[in-house]
Amino acid sequence: MKQFINTRETLVTEAINGTLRTAGGRLARLDGYPHIKVVIRTDWDKSKVALVSGGGSGHEPSHAGFVGQGMLTAAVCGEVFASPSVDAVLAGILAVTGRAGCLLIVKNYTGDRLNFGLAAERARAQGLKVSMVVVDDDVALPDLPQPRGVAGTLFVHKIAGALAEQGADLDAVTEAAHRVIKGVVSIGMSLDTCTIPGSPKEDRIPHGKAELGLGIHGEAGIEQVEFSSAREAMEMVVDRLAPNIGPGPKVALLNNLGSATPLEMAVLAEELIRSRIGDQIRWLVGPAPLMTSLDMRGFSVSLLSATKADEAALVAPVGPWAWPGCLPVGEVAVEPLPDGLTPIQPIPSKNAATRDFIERCCRILIEAESDLNALDAKSGDGDTGSTLATAARALIGALDRLPLADQTQLYRAIGLELSQTMGGSSGVLLAIFFAAAGDASAAGQDPNGALKAGLDRVQQVGGARVGDRTMIDALMPALEALQNGLAAAASAARAGADSTAKITQARAGRASYLAAESLAGHNDPGAEAVARLFENLC
């Protein structure tokens, strides 16, 4: 798989340097590359308890992204998914620990426990006060004697970091960390595995499946489950978390494991709050990439039974850029539309033949959704089919309130409906098309004349003409031939749509941004949609 790296051997050191370039002098690294990779605060005076964490790289922004005021004092970074060495951990401890002592926050993996543990012993032998807590928040494997440490570790960083910043002693900070660890649970789900730099991608999750309870190092989950929607995915995650939490308010942390889009993560946040435990969630951290697994297309949820003091610690301001904040969960605020935008609803009327015709048109576009998306993906962003199908479904849902017996008002009502339900420039252009057709119909034009008037208005506003590789290449000849019957219109639309495959210089629409080789041999998806509509109506 292609990746923006130079070499596997220099990946982590170069990434750390790149991070520090924009730290504004607040962060630095210890000398000792490549074996010692430690990021520390430069504004640290050792008068307070130091917090040191770390582990393998590949979980960015963890751990270096959380170094700063109010969170970690130092992050010890290993190679990708590999524990840092004992010497590297010891270097981090020695660099930041003063008389107040140091707390090591370690995720429950054998390598991390051993290396951090031995480094702690060596630091103690040098007279330093060092305590260590081990985070084991993963509930994916309930019978596992040593549960893994995953994204719930961030709660420990934040709460312990706030106490240390306030001047609490090592015993108090350590006790709080233990209490948080006892109260946090986590589990993750992914649609795909991660890609380890320099290695071939493991393809173990088949299409239509998701993996539940997988680890942050790409370890296989406890089971592969059927995947159909964000709602069902969140329900499965909640089902695993719910038996491990008691009553009372919770703080949730919604973590992007790497390559889920912000749009997807926002949907997952909505589903988490709407879930059966949603009424317990008072605060939410994220959704954000917090403890990732390289490019894994998944998410995890961590829940903490937090005290009022914990909540105060979680909302306390911090320096690290990667902390997204802990925000209260509330209702969705809805304001009324301003005057002038509230649509005037037409008076509904019935006409069985018109209703059947509109529904047939809509069904044709819905059935063509995947084909049109695939065609659009060759020369656009792959959403033409979905855009048309979404509008078609909305139009079917609106049939009972449309003036089906009044053709003039029907054109206008369809235009209004499309302007509200159909996205992108296509929705605007078709809304203009039907609004103009309504005006022409009111002036006495027959249906064919009204539709031609609508197309003229679209050309005036949109600027496209025949030959510009748009839906007009099929729609214009179809309307010209419609006076000779529907079959003639379908034939003309097909010829127009097929001609767009030979047009390699689009002059309108998103295709105008593409090179000739991306367009050659592929019909314009809008023109193809018009051709399929007329052909299927025949």
From TrEMBL:
The keyword Nucleotide-binding applies. Keywords: ATP-binding, Kinase, Nucleotide-binding, Transferase. It holds the Pfam family Dak1. PROSITE patterns: DHAK, DHAL. GO terms for biological process: glycerol catabolic process. InterPro entries: DhaK_dom, DhaL_dom, DhaL_dom_sf, Dihydroxyacetone_Kinase. GO terms for cellular component: cytosol. This is Dihydroxyacetone kinase subunit DhaK. The lineage of its organism: Bacteria, Pseudomonadati, Pseudomonadota, Alphaproteobacteria, Rhodobacterales.
